[in-house]
Amino acid sequence: MPEKSSETVPRDHRFTSIDAVREIARRRLPRMVFDFADGGAETERTMRRNEEAFGNLQLMPRPLSGGAERDLSVTLLGTRLSMPLIIGPTGFAGLFWPQGELAAARAAHAAGTAYVMSHASTITIERLARDAAGPNWFQNFIYRDRGLTRSFAERALASGYDAMVITIDNQVPGFRERDVRNGFVVPPRITVRNAVDLILHPGWGLRMLRTPNLTFANYASAEHASIMALSAYMASNLNPDVSWDDIDAARRTWPGKLLVKGILHPLDAVEAIERGADGIIVSNHGGRQLDGAPATIEVLPAIVEAVAGRVPVLLDGGVRRGADVVRARALGAAACLIGRPQLWGLAAGGEYGVRQVLEILREEMDRVLALCGIRSVADIDASCLRREGNPGSDPASGTV
C-alpha cells in the first residue's frame, strides 16, 4: 500500500492532554456509559498498573544530538504510517458518538495511521471499508461457532482489510464491577436509578435518539434481530475451549497479514510466530479481563527478546502520553495501540475529538524526541531510558 500522508489539525485549547479529553467525556456522558469505557475488571489493579508502569521508566535527554525536525513515521507490515500509533479495537463505539467507528476511522486515516475495527462495531465490516478507505484492520474472536469466526474473516477479506487481528484473551467475559453497580446493559435502559443522570446529559441522549438501529451490526440477522438477542448470542459464543489449532485455522482462512492480540508470555509469542503470525500485540485487554495480570510495558522487553526481530511487536494498554509511545519504542515495540482515549475523543466531539486525541499524542511524541535529542522514531532505543530507583541499570542492554 502506498505511504499514507497525514493532515494537520488546528489544536483546540480545551484538549490540552488525554486526561483533559477524558474529563470532557466524563462530563458529557451518563455515568454508566462513561464507566463502560473507563472501567476495568474487578479491583482494576491491572488497568491502573498499565498506566502507572510507564512512569517507572525515566527519559534520558541528550540535547546536543537532535535535529531541527523530527521524523515520526514508521513502516509497519508494509504500510507507511505517519507515527507509531494506531487506533485499537473497541466494541460498541457508536454508543459514544453516532457511527463512532466511522468517525474514528476517518480521524485515523486523516492523521496518516491505521484503524482496527472491532467485531462488536455498530456499523458493518463492509460499510467501514466503503466509507473510510485507508489502512483498516479487522479484529476477530475465536467463537464457539467456528463458522462465525471464519465468516467474519471472509467478509473482511472480501472488503479489502489490510490485516486481521485475532484476540485470544476473551475466553469468558471479564467481571467489570462498575457495570454491575451501574446496572449497565446493552442497550442502556432508563431505570429509576439512572433516570436523573440521563436527563442531565441531554446532548448524548439526543444524539442517541437520532441514531437509527444502534446495534452490533456485524451480527445482525433475521434470527438475532433485536440487540438484546444479539448480546445474548455474542456472550454465548465466547469459548474457553480455544487452542493453537484455532490460530492454525485462522492462518488458513486469512491469506493477508495476521496478528495475535492478548500475548503476555514470551513462549506464547514464539508459538504464535511458529503458527504463522505476522505480528504480536502485547495486551491484557486494557485490564478488562484478568485482574492481576502484569502491565503490558512490564512484559514487553522479554517478549521482544523472544521474538528476536522476526515479526513486529506492538503494545496495547495504558498509553496516555506521547512519551509512553517513545518508552514503548525504546523497549522494542514497533507501535502502540490506543483504546479508551479514542472513545473519550468520540464522546468529546466525534471525529473532531479523535483527531484532537491523535494530534495531542503526535505533538507530545515530537516534543519528547526534540528534548531527548532524537532525530527520528527509528533512532529510539533503550539508551534513552533509565528505570526509576535503579541508577545502576544499563538502559542500552534493554534490561532497564
Automatic annotation (TrEMBL):
Its EC number is 1.-.-.-. SUPFAM superfamilies: FMN-linked oxidoreductases. Its cofactor is FMN. Keywords: Flavoprotein, FMN, Oxidoreductase. One of its GO terms (molecular function) is oxidoreductase activity. Transmembrane segments: none annotated. PROSITE patterns: FMN_HYDROXY_ACID_DH_1, FMN_HYDROXY_ACID_DH_2. Residues 10-390 form the FMN hydroxy acid dehydrogenase domain. Belongs to the FMN-dependent alpha-hydroxy acid dehydrogenase family. This is Alpha-hydroxy acid oxidase. It comes from Shinella pollutisoli. The lineage of its organism: Bacteria, Pseudomonadati, Pseudomonadota, Alphaproteobacteria, Hyphomicrobiales.
